[in-house]
């Protein structure tokens, strides 16, 4: 009998549900939340209300897109954390009710581990190479920036991480300084395509080991824009392409420097990207080029699997199901959920 997993994601501002059968995707429905745009960032209270409205129709659509009835679902996987508490509560409570009413296993999933496991989602009629263990994953999202050594599906070790802002946060905060809408990462990516990445220079931070830091870049970008606007009002508008290209180039260089060092130190040449910032064209190209030059095998997820989605929750729950790693009904969401390590 097939193992059919319903995955639920509600950690931030996307309500998503997905059905996966024996590791193969049947559906992946994502409802974004436009309501935050005018505030320039996610408003937690509004996010949880929107999840509450979206979750039932999103799950119904995911099941009907997959052609699966509720009684055919083997287990339900949900994001336990990290994320916004009010948002996580909606997905957690829904999943508990769903599992209890059907008397099926409930499986908690770490959102970050799930971002990494998108590389194992199979699709009908598509053959996608999967990374071999151990591999290195650069996980770059709005809330996290980590270099992870992935030993197997459920055993991962953090080799380096940001000591302040995440890479996605750096994109979004700098975009806000230029007056771009939220989330700013995709906008910077768009304007950067038309700009010169070497037009402006921004300093790289020096942090010990394999850790990252992005708060200094944001501050120097702020002062740079303020000074240039004072000298010549309209500077940002006139130079938006070059500003975006130079900023993106700097962030990508910072990310690549430690990734390259970790590959060198460990000798592991299977290299994957994951998380929302993995949608960035500059980063995708840079990893591809480093890979070609240094004989790495590179794995870059499809754009839809980079930002938050429930297919990644379902695939992680699938591997946990195979190991019997089920949760009790009294499980609670964790806003700061420790990354699985071992
Ligand atoms: O993984 P994700 O959907 O949510 C979190 O778990 O944080 O990542 C969202 C982040 C945002 O900061 C967004 O600006 C960034 O990913 N992002 C991008 C691009 N697409 C999304 N950053 C740069 N370039 C992009 N194309
Ligand atoms: Zn995420």
By DSSP (H or I, 4+ residues per run), the number of helices equals 10
Which of globular, elongated, flat, extended, rod-shaped describes the shape? globular
Distance between the termini: 31 Å
Work out the strand percent: 15-25%
| Uncertain segments | none
Count of discrete structural domains: 2
Report helical residue fraction. Answer: 40-55%
Order of helices and strands: EEEHEHEHEEEHHHHHEHEH
CATH architecture label of the largest domain: 2-Layer Sandwich
CATH third-level topology of the largest domain: Nucleotidyltransferase, domain 5
The helix/strand class is alpha/beta
Structure description:
The protein has 10 helices and 10 strands. It is α/β, with parallel strands linked by helices and 342 residues long. The relative contact order is 0.19. The protein has helices spanning 44-66, 85-102, 111-117, 167-177, 185-192, 215-231, 235-238, 240-266, 281-294, 311-322; strands at 4-9, 15-21, 24-31, 75-81, 106-110, 135-140, 145-152, 155-161, 270-274, 297-299. The longest helix has 27 residues, at 240-266. It binds 5'-O-[(R)-(carboxyoxy)(hydroxy)phosphoryl]adenosine and zinc ion (ZN). 5'-O-[(R)-(carboxyoxy)(hydroxy)phosphoryl]adenosine (KG4) binds next to α4 and α5.
List the helices and strands and how they pair.
Blueprint (H helix, E strand, L loop, with lengths): L3 E6 L5 E7 L2 E8 L12 H23 L8 E7 L3 H18 L3 E5 H7 L17 E6 L4 E8 L2 E7 L5 H11 L7 H8 L22 H17 L3 H4 L1 H27 L3 E5 L6 H14 L2 E3 L11 H12 L20
Parallel strand pairs: 1-4, 4-5, 6-9, 9-10
Antiparallel strand pairs: 1-2, 2-3, 6-7, 7-8
Helix pairs in contact: 1-2, 3-10, 4-6, 4-8, 5-8, 8-9
Bound molecules: 5'-O-[(R)-(carboxyoxy)(hydroxy)phosphoryl]adenosine and zinc ion (ZN).
The site of zinc ion (ZN) has 6 residues, from helix 3.
